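task queued by scheduler; priority normal; single chain, no ligands, no partner chains; default sampling; output format set to structure tokens
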Amino acid sequence: MISRRDTLKLCLAAGAAATLPLSSSLLAESRRGELITRAIPSTGVRLPAVGLGSSATFASVARSEDVEALREVLQALVDQGGRVFDTAPGYGASEAVAGELAAELGISETLFWATKVNVAGRGGGSADPEAARAQIETSFKRLGKRPLDLIQVHNLGDVPTQLGLLKELREEGRVRHIGVTTTFERQYEELERIMSREPLDTVGIDYAIDNRVMEQRILPLARDRGIGVLVYAPFGRTRLWERVRGRDVPEWAAEFDAHSWAQFFLKFVISHPAVTVATPATSRARHMFDNMGGARGELPDEAMRRRMIAHIEGLS
């Protein structure tokens, strides 16, 4: 099996005409099958089941003066058929830099932009409506797409105020989808309440093979309510990489076309029927290429998902 470290020697040329100088075998591997897509239930908009997040390493590189690597990542996403780019004003320079690079590459309209709003802060409290509006308008300017695809209330910040603004924007046709996000366990009950009473298009949550609490209530509720699900941290942030360090992907993973640990982890996540798209963050084009392989080929069935869980839990 191909490890993430050793797989896919990828070097994208700068600019919109970037190419993928791969061996014929790896190029064939990258193109096996059609991309797996999922629909946002409220609108039927279909999205590739793997996208790109812009926190973590992406955000770190965006703060630097050399953002060429991020240009290559965005080009790799689009070249492999990806569209979903998840960002937020709270991710430092990520949103602004991505908007600039997408414009330079001519892919602003191609991308499905998923951004966020939150001027209430992580600690809660009230959101000033004018400050929230200003943050949203800045996102419109940075991303340059009308209507904007998705804006979510980040970390459930003052949902009555900020989701109220998003509802107005959706009614005006300036944004197509709205939602809320959280990756904090202490907010899961509140998330459930909001999902039960608000007309959401999407939620953004944390979910991974070693973090399955969302399977208990949130994911079933999303299916019942017709709410799309964006998954953050599908690699358990760094937990899963530490657990599999120095280990090969099991041979039986080939049964569902997983040829690296990244694809193993991503296929587990997107094989849940409530999940719309997983958005792992990366600042390396070769990892973007690898990740997109998780949206091709077969997906594990329920029996295989149990085998995957047992395998990961059995690693010391």
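post-processing summary
- The beta strands are 37-39, 46-48, 52-53, 84-86, 112-117, 148-153, 175-181, 202-206, 228-232, 277-278.
- The radius of gyration is 19 Å.
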